[in-house]
Write a structure and sequence with these properties.
Strand content: 15-25%
Largest sheet: 9 strands, mixed
Distance between the termini: 26 Å
Organism: Fuerstiella marisgermanici
Number of helices: 17
Pfam families: MR_MLE_C
CATH superfamily of the largest domain: Enolase-like C-terminal domain
Oligomer: single chain
CATH architecture of the largest domain: Alpha-Beta Barrel
Shape: globular
Structural class: alpha/beta
Radius of gyration: 22 Å
Protein name: L-alanine-DL-glutamate epimerase of enolase superfamily protein
CATH class of the largest domain: Alpha Beta
Helix content: 25-40%
Amino acid sequence: MSKGKATDVRILNVEIGFEAVSFRAPLKFGGRVVDHTYLINARVDVESRSGNQASGYGSMPVGNVWAWPSPNVEPADGEAAMKAYAEKFAELFASYPEFAHPLEIHFNVGAEFHHQAKKISDRLNLAEPLPQLAQLVSTSPIDAALHDAYGRVHKKNIFHLLSAEYCNEDLSYFLDEQFAGEYLDKYTLREPVAKLPLYHLVGALDPLTDADVTDRPDDDLPMTLGEWIAADGLTHLKIKLSGDNLDWDVDRVLAVEKIATDAQAKRGCAEWFYSCDFNEKCDSAEYVIEFLNRVKSSAAQAYDRIQYIEQPTSRDLEAASAAKMHDVAKLKPVVIDEALVDYEALLKCRELGYSGVALKACKGQTESLFAAAAAQKFDMFLCVQDLTCPGSSFLHSCSLAAHIPGIAAVEGNARQYCPGPNKKWRKRYPAVFDIKDGNIVTDRLNEHGLGFHLPEWVSSIPAGVKDDGADQVATTERIVKKTVRDES
């Protein structure tokens, strides 16, 4: 690494804790049903070379069912391992001795990711180490808090701090020589776009009509698809599909099309879109092509509304049976999701025919920015997806989406499944959490750090935010893990 900038920071302290969140309605994906999660909440304190200090905050759901869907590790064990991994990296980030830019700190600490994944799994007697995706999710709150603190110590939004003026290394240091002389300011926006369409999730268990409702929660939120469209003016619907039952998948899209057509007609909306998410369950590209052809023959207008296909086959890119997506991509953009864990994976997916990239804040601010740069370099379709992120984790996701050129839409489904942590944040950012005309208003996400203000109640409870009696949210599960630099 080069000599360093006057703007570099070092980490003084890392705090981490876990916050239980229950769901108002179950969410099914990848063949499993989720009805609760934990937030990993992190606080990072930094110091600049000039001696100024600031704190940053990051939060992200554990999301182990999505990040680690292993037949060899029970979900509860995977969840525990991801928490332990986050705790370990609180220690490792706090012990990083150098002044640097957050991109460089994360990149260098990340050299320990795979080693610690094996050590944690061995300590917990698990059958396999944490996979790379679980590693990224577990450390993403710390990465976010570090970027947030860096912005706050310089009293700027982090998207103003990605140029050669602040970064010690260009992108070729992190990616390859195609990016020589380039910095992330080339691939990001200084100011957020004014608004973005929201992708609303239509889960496999979600009721489309009143006839499908078996248990309506005791709240004032919509429940059926028609109710959600009417309430939020939705224009983008993400449809969860089975991937191993072609008849059900086609029928589900046609049923959504019928409900959406009726609901949109009532509000005078003529244009809306779908994305289709098979959660890797398809066994081949041919399945996807047959699915698209059958949708097109049954309802051409529904086919036309499909904006993209989300990674339909296995995330295992090295398998001999890894499906090639070239023919699917001729019909619709096919985006990388679960397989996108680093730049090398993105290159491999391009070889396999993927034509788009799904960014996710849960993979870390650093890795998301690298993926966004590569996707733009290679002229790929771009969207930002969700890990059912509530509260500040959703604000982080929206800020990321609003500062990347060409984002088609941003997914946000915590408001459907676990809205409790949103309540306090909604008071300051109502236009982000209260959807109007199908859009999230993002023009205010230009404040210091990650882009949004940290209220006093975050600063006072840095690693376990409570929600004042909201029944969807329990208090912090355990004591805060605190690591302070030993100056001796």
